[in-house]
């Protein structure tokens, strides 16, 4: 079950911009909001307006630390094209070849 929530975080991490000055407390709140408000996406539903707002407001440095190989397998299970379509449907672009949660994540 945790893998599914990590999958949602991957959804968001693929599109969120870098921001500076986010506190650990703010990151925890962002992560919890994403998990709670975007949960239906994992089960095949479209993102709600609240989920999309959370996606647009999320910071990469809050999301990427939760990502790793297990999370990547969850995204593949959802389907990368569907994930990209959902993210873009929330008003965010997905950077081409961007890797979050890996050594190649930009500073």
From TrEMBL:
Residues 1-21 form the signal peptide. SUPFAM superfamilies: Bifunctional inhibitor/lipid-transfer protein/seed storage 2S albumin. It holds the Pfam family LTP_2. Residues 8-100 form the Bifunctional inhibitor/plant lipid transfer protein/seed storage helical domain. This is Bifunctional inhibitor/plant lipid transfer protein/seed storage helical domain-containing protein. Keywords: Signal. It comes from Forsythia ovata.
